[in-house]
Fold each of these.
Amino acid sequence: MTFSEILDRVGSMGPFQYLHVTLLALPVLGIANHNLLQIFTATTPAHHCRPPPNASIGPWVLPLDPNGKPEKCLRFMHLPNASLPNDTQAATEPCLDGWIYNGTRDTIVTEWDLVCSSNKLKEMAQSIFMAGILIGGPVFGELSDRFGRKPILTWSYLMLAASGSGAAFSPSLPVYMIFRFLCGCSISGISLSTVILNVEWVPTSMRAISSTLIGYCYTIGQFVLSGLAYVIPQWRWLQLTVSVPFFIFSLLSWWVPESIRWLVLSGKFSKALKTLKRVATFNGKKEEGEKLTTEELKFNLQKDITSAKVKYGLSDLLRVSILRRVTFCLSLAWFSTGFAYYSLAMGVEEFGVNIYILQVIFGGVDIPAKFITILSISYLGRRITQGFLLLLAGGAILALIFVSSEMPLVRTTLAVFGKGCLSGSFSCLFLYTSELYPTVLRQTGMGVSNVWARVGSMIAPLVKITGEVQPFIPNVIFGTMALLGGSAAFFLLETLNRPLPETIEDIQDWHQQVKKAKQEPEPETASQTIPLKTGGPK
């Protein structure tokens, strides 16, 4: 008897699973808020130099840049009792007395003057947040495999609530960055535990649907963020508003059961049996649950239990050939998805459209994109879906090179299409990765794979700087990486309608079956060609 068959006995898709998926999905609404928060809390409004305090009362003349627009970072040098300069050849100086900002939004940019020579600190704040997600991936992956999925999920909720609230009260930019780093770490713990607890409690036939529904919560979260940002123009209040709900989610997480697979493979049979009986009762199958015994669990899962006594770690992902291939291809797919996704998602200001409207459009495209993705992964398979989503995204980004900035509608359309493909890619990757790695290494594999998405999201802002050399260079790099990631996906195993592998031996046997299936037609072809050779004229 396998885990899937045991799950069928207590109800593989009943009221418990619906409540379980709901409890996992609700916090995902807030994950979108934190991931994309700096679109609104770090908006750079129009600005110009503040006049010196001893300047005479009257109109303050600003120097013009090469495009004929007022300079944002320079002002004419002011001498007491001197007349105002009226030509572009007069001497200029930096904004020694600060800046005057247009608009009503209060952001970290306006509070800490992150403009001109300090403008890169804004990108650094986002990169440090992504660095938190990067480091949190392998750290919480290892901790989850050691202490369980549920404790890490609850701790991550509390950590995000506390660090997010701390960021709202930050007295300085360095303190703000530290709290945002901790927010990133906790988001990794939430994402990884949510994915694992979803796929391990939901039957094979429903995994794609439940994963996509959780993904839709992220989409809805983008709408919620736009609305909150429009209503709350003060960045501190907005930061606090999106953080406090995670205190409530940490309490709700006590209703989320631990992974039965993890409990059994960790030798916690009595707790696993108690959890199964509770699920059976909740699903209206109390009698079936009462029939289960500890001895039955041990007997039926003896092979998996024996294999689990061997401790696995990061080195095993490189030691076993099939896991090495899976890790390499998934890492490239994750890297290219995060790399390209955040180049579009965090570049809302660059398209010349109202940021609230464009954020709603960016969120809205996820609805059809993820719906098409769920149909594709359910009928065409995970491998084909993953490959083509990244290829299409790469093509859209490369197409931006040939569209003039004077055609904002076309550029926005291509960006929205590319972002939709990359959102679908994320949805597919979370499911696909959890299905490819065996249970004994699943959380570790998810953590390592996720690291590469965060590396990509960290590097993306730095790549944009290359646009100062040639405007088309960033899109060439982003598009090419997406094409490479899509190509790598075609070298992975197909997981459609397959049970989750429990041990390393399971995935090795699976790989051998695939290789054998590919080799079987060859002898038939050879046997058909022999008569043609021997039966011809001499």
Note: Confidence is low (pLDDT under 50) at residues 524-538.
Amino acid sequence: MSPEKEETDEYGVLLYYNYADIPDLNDMVTFYNSNCSSLGLLGRVRISPHGVNVTVGGKLSCLESHIDAVKSIHNGLFQSTDFKLAPCHQPLNDQVAQESGFTSLSIRIVKELVTLSSRPLLKSPEISNAGKHLSAAEFHSSLHKVDKESPENSLVLLDARNLYETRIGKFDVPNVETLDPQVRQYSDLSSWIDDKIDQLKGKNILMYCTGGIRCEMASAYIKSKGAGFENVFQLYGGIQRYLEQFPDGGFFKGKNFVFDHRISVGSSDANIIGTCLICHCSFDDYSSRCRCTHCRMLVLVCHSCQNEAALYVCELCQKQGKAVRPMQLIENGESKTSLPGVDFQDFSSDTILLPQMPRGDDVKTSRKLRILCLHGFRQNASSFKGRTASLTKKLKKIAEFVFIDAPHELPFIYQTPTPVPQSSCVLSSSPPSPPPPSENCRKKFAWFVAPNFDGGCGVDWKVTDSPFDPLQYQHQTDGYAISISHLETVFSQQGPFDGILGFSQGAAMTALISAQQEKLKGKMDFKFVILCSGFALNVKEMECGFIKCPSLHIFGNEHGKDRQIDNQASKELASRYDGGCSVIVEHDCGHIIPTRSPYIDEIKDFLGRFL
């Protein structure tokens, strides 16, 4: 093999994004699936109506072929795209490779390439109004000029990345104020901007991030604030292009965190600016993947301080009062305050190391989303748990589901068989069928009942007075106050919960709760709702304008075979939510919550916003 061929067969990573109108999402998915699979590329491809965001790895020659193919599609749609290609080692750590998505090829259609906010925005920013691009040289020159001359009070540097990224690397320029929002995730940045809006007004704002895509939307959001926010600039190509232009690091100190198996990329300057969470020594290696036990954000823990049975609490959770002291373990009736090989006297008073008993093969237990589940009409917690077993199994790594019974107990009912004609005009006179045995019947419950409901329940069976009415859910509108009181007690005794999942009538109840979210604040706090086969009740509590609560709507399409809840009823409910923070998943699986791909992937994507 020639030296040139050996060189092109080295491993590499390719990053690029492009904001552009995608004419056909399915065509784009087909292209990426075919091209990446044929070239042996692994990684993440996200496609939205507004563009693509791609991070893939493979042989350099294959990555170059991929770039040529991308440039040739859709009449030069990607001709001006900045393709950031870097040679590197192949993934060595299976855990890191898996977390960064480099053990498979993941191609998904998403609503947004990056999620600026997990809450509805009064006005979504237009990407065409993003800050002016500055090349690495122009960005450096702007900073160099201020550094050499005099303090420029009108210039601020704004880091658009997360705290775990800025811990190990950031720009540091004398005489220039650098703002580090210290957010856990990008979707928190818009709230920080809103809080600091007076501090930013009238300033020349220079923004930067890893590769540029987060600055596109964030700079547009700042400029959307109007007068006083015209001078917003962004580092084109991000820190990656800057370090290529200035190999010694320039004004950037430390390492650039990247979202692939490399973890971080540094300059020729070997200085470390990160510190261990426990002992505060210099340390910037995230390869151990230690995480905060509360919010799951990555934390830096040096090799000497790492312990498999320990839990860590990040600096943000400490500020929120979530830092906890070593807990006592009870073993054979004797109190223990230490772990094998760990002497807590060796740690300072602000140490955040917790003993933890391993659970099965999951030694490092992650914090999961807690989701309260509300069953449908004439169901109970047990039956709903059984019906959602596949869903809970597939989401067990990220979510814990809590199932409860509704407060209105329903009577057992049965329908007698319709008399069968013995001839053209004679009906059989056989005695009515007896009710089914009740010994093994589980109680059934509801969130809403009919206005004429007498509250009777329990042991005896009742013969229904009419055939099954598929529209009965429209008439079950009473009982809201009792259900709300019941749920307030559940939140108080079993909370907190990150979100609420409702199915059928449970979804109608969940919708009412989300419509009253501000009114219920302090009694029932949650971040999102999932409405499956939902519908809206015609009650005054739903008359509140657009519901500004992040929501996922899952229901059967027009041909989805849901014989209980009409497709239009679920669509109408979804239309009541602010479109900027709602996701709709239509399926063809009937009156269920689908768990096969691509539906489960969309559910995971939605929940991922809140991890």
Note: The first strand starts at residue 11 and ends at 19.
Amino acid sequence: MCCEVYPNKNKTITNKITLPKFNSHLNFSDGFSKRCRNSLSYLPRFSSTASNSTLIFVCFCILQITAPSVGRKNVTLICVPVIAESVEKMKIDMHKAKAEGVDLVELRLDSLNTFNPFQDINILIRHRLLPLLFTYRPKWEGGMYDGDENKRLDALRIAMELGADYIDVELKVAPQFYDSIRGKTYNQTRVIVSSHNFELTPSTEDLGNLVARIQATGADIVKIATTAVDIADVARMFQITVHSQVPLIGIVMGDRGLISRVLCAKFGGYLTFGTLESGVVSAPGQPSLKDLLHLYNFRALAPDTKVYGLIGKPVSQSKSPTLLNEAFKSVGFNGVYIILLVDDIANFLRTYSSTDFMGFSVTLPHKETAVKLCDEVDPVAKSIGAVNCIIRRPTDGKLIGYNTDYVGAISAIEDGLRGNHNGSSTTVSPLAGKLFVVIGAGGAGKAVAYGAKEKGARVVIANRTYDRARELADAIGGEALPLADLDNFHSEDGMILANTSSIGMIPKVDETPISKHALKHYSIVFDAVYTPKMTRLLKEAEEAGVTIVTGFEMFIGQAYGQFENFTGLPAPKKLFRQIMKDY
């Protein structure tokens, strides 16, 4: 593995010297060139007695360590944090990490129940299968160690003496640590100096100053981890990463910071962290290794990879990344699709306005607001009053809004009804003349109500807030009903029911918008919720003998249109169904 080459042999901690400028001929237009530039300009400090041949050898080694291996389009490393109570468990997890194809392993010494520094570190290094990063994180920096500081720093010095590939030292104690090793020679250890902010992400200027402070300590690699209060905070970390002249690990913690952990491969970050098991994290918001490698296709991300994503709140339950990333990969489309936990869609679109970010799906609660934020809106979406797909036009950067929800939902309901009518091939919609009850008056409710009305149905809107139901009903020429009255509404039999609200969605799977006894008056029940696939509403409708249509059908249908808008290619419909068959 290329990252097992150690570029800093015989490193001695002395005064910093100026190295020759080997990088003047490099093209900085891609991530590989940038990494070469960073590495050559900011090598670990060498003894002033280092020969020219040593420097040439070092540069050659760095070119090896930074060149992407076959099949990789970026040089960003994947590191697995190992948090275990015993050295034996750490050894087991190192084997697992090796089998998964990661680049290095972070061993969290502060997680060990008992710890004999020399003995345990020696064992771990002797069983090294991958480059090892030793971290001994104190409680005051978010870790678990709560003992004597001198003993903690002694353990990191021991790791260096025994040949650790990397150690992590906190900025607060970095000057003290460097003073303690000055004049000593270590064979191959690169020092990461780290700073963690568990409250917020500072301004771009403050982040830049922080990079300079960390670099001034003598760090080989700068690590900054901040916290995302809003997803727009991550843009500042991307800006710092792209312009950094030193190897930089820039992480923004929390669910809103997920994109920092994935897109660092696009923007030139030194490494990212992925966990062996979902939920077993060393910092908030870490993705699993499986998601990095297989869901987001991390190794294939490149500086020219276009970013797409799902804007919403919540978004963690969505299957869209699974569907669209697999589809992108299958057709060779250079894009990545990621969930985007967005509180303020206007601020998000204003912040991520470059052509790196080319398109977005939009879900609750932003579909209606999105209409106002697009530069142009498709006539159908404008009539509906909701947008679920935004494309950035490459020629001028303008945002174009579309709605693909109504096609997916209406087609699925029509297919369900045609099934009831023995596959009738009539060109007249089976919705024509039917009483069609829509639960919800948000973006999805508007799309379904619009689609039903276009097909000739008589539409009734039921919503928790009656005024919202009345407003939508007036817009499409329908009737309005408070949701609380729905159980007693049965003006005729054979009605159609479509739930477009989030009632019944994970995690509130025990909720339903209508009582089971009232379902007997409907011929078909559709639920736009698809996580879980079988909601309580659908289960009870099926038990009542009513035909059901799952939200899966709407999800697949609307995804066809989104894929075509994103890529300009025909949607691989069979592949979509194959991908989603297990959900």
Note: The first helix runs from residue 31 to 41.
Amino acid sequence: MRFRSRNYINSWGRFFWFAAFIVSTFVLFNGFSYSNFRFLFGARFEPVLKFARKTPTANAIVSGEHPVTQILSVRETVLLPDQVILFLKYPRSARLFTKEELECVYLSVHNPSPVPWLKQSPARVDTEQLSEQIVRCPSGPRGLLITVGSKLNGVFPAGPTHHWDSLAYEALIDNDNTTVVFVKGLNLRPERVSNASRFECVYGEDFSRLKLVLRSEVLSIAQEIVRCRTPLIVLNSKKKVNSSVKVSVRIKGGGTLPSIARLGFLSDSGCDPLPTRKPHETCICTMARNQARFLKEWVMYHALIGVQRWYIYDNNSDDDTDQVIESLFNAGYNISRHIWPWVKTQEGGFSHCALRAKGSCEWIGFIDVDEFLHLPSGLFLHDVISNLTSITTSFGNISIGEIRVSCYSFGPSGLKRIPKQGVTVGYTCRLVVPERHKSIVKPEALNSTLINIVHHFHLRDDFRFIDVDRRMMVVNHYKYQVWEVFKQKFYRRVATYVADWKDEQNVGSKDRAPGLGTRAVEPVDWSSRFCEVTDTGLKDRVLQNFANPKNSLLPWQTTSNKKAGPWFVEEKNTSKVQEKEYRLL
């Protein structure tokens, strides 16, 4: 009897180890997810993420019949509506090509010959990091493969090509260790939270083979922003992940969005907790295209009323925007340019900016370059914000997370040419009734979905917004400037959910110029339109407080690279405002 029992135990032991071997083999060779690891091995198991090596044939340059050593690789290619974006990757020690040395090369998809069908000069080349570049090429004829080449080194192999209308294009790991993914192509409704259970996030290099990717839970999804639970293995491998692993979103039971979204972190050291005291009280973020000639006035003016930091999201400018930003930075302004080539993504860009500003800015305003914060009270911006957010009501202390500021829309004011002293002095006639509003927000007060409609954000439940009385603060929106400037609005709108001015859609919308239609044809009476009341409030303050007493020049009229000094600023009374001057909602 003992012998039979011993055999019985041995048989079960052999079966146990055989079963364990089968399960382990199945997990290793059939893909895995973060939740699988936690279930099978517990929270302490931390596998190492490994990355595939590229084959030698991928490191060749097409140059006649003989491949030569690779100098760069085309990492990704994205087809936008009217141009092509190519992301180049160089070896760390390599010298980056200049715009003059690079060519946009168009190859036939069906013809294996390396002889280019067409060559054109790139519209722009931007250096994103020490070993990476973004090249903008004109859109070529349909059916051609687009890559880059150089006159000395031949044609470089084309990279994976993606269509813009279905793509995961950016990803950041937030301070709470979640991943925020920015996507196109899910077609979700604006200002609505969608059902997160229908989706999952995937991490890896090749999304065509789901067995080789990490999967994770979608925590929230709204508009074009997805928040994911970041797998522990990704957080622990952040140095490698940052340059190698991409993130995308998969519709359960459906397909996975193509992705160029490589993980980024909010700081060099990873996901640091928010500081108790941030370095800047007031910041401003904007998305701009070809605003170089107005940027200097916009930055200098706001510096003089108390703004300390500027985030410029450059949306495919082809003027001197980069040089103006560099000159302002060299003059002492804390300003940075973030390359944002994605079309009709203003909401996503503002959410991206809010994440970046969370660790640096107590408050950040989201306004355009033709919008100026005007403080009729004469206070500095940080004083106005402090007064408005330190109120006490009958309900006790209230946490204010967003300040909404009304916008006055100014017209051409009788002008036919760009005013020499700047928009703040030149345009003095506007519509009587304010149009819409813009917001100054506390970044940590934003709802985790990051929903916004450009003009304001959705807030967490424990925060409220406040409407500012126009006697305290207003936005002067120089919306209808001289025709030379205004006609540029017909190129493309930057917001996701509004029709372009040339589209035969919502022609009567308030987002358009009344009675103008869909064509950029100057009306005979353009210079006198949109003038219902004269308003010289901001003009008077600028000339009185900011003009140089020696030569009457304004800071943005000078060629000096020095930051405007305190002699341009008049000290004002900073007493508290009264509760009756605003309305709490």
Note: The chain has three domains: 73-162, 167-265, 280-533.
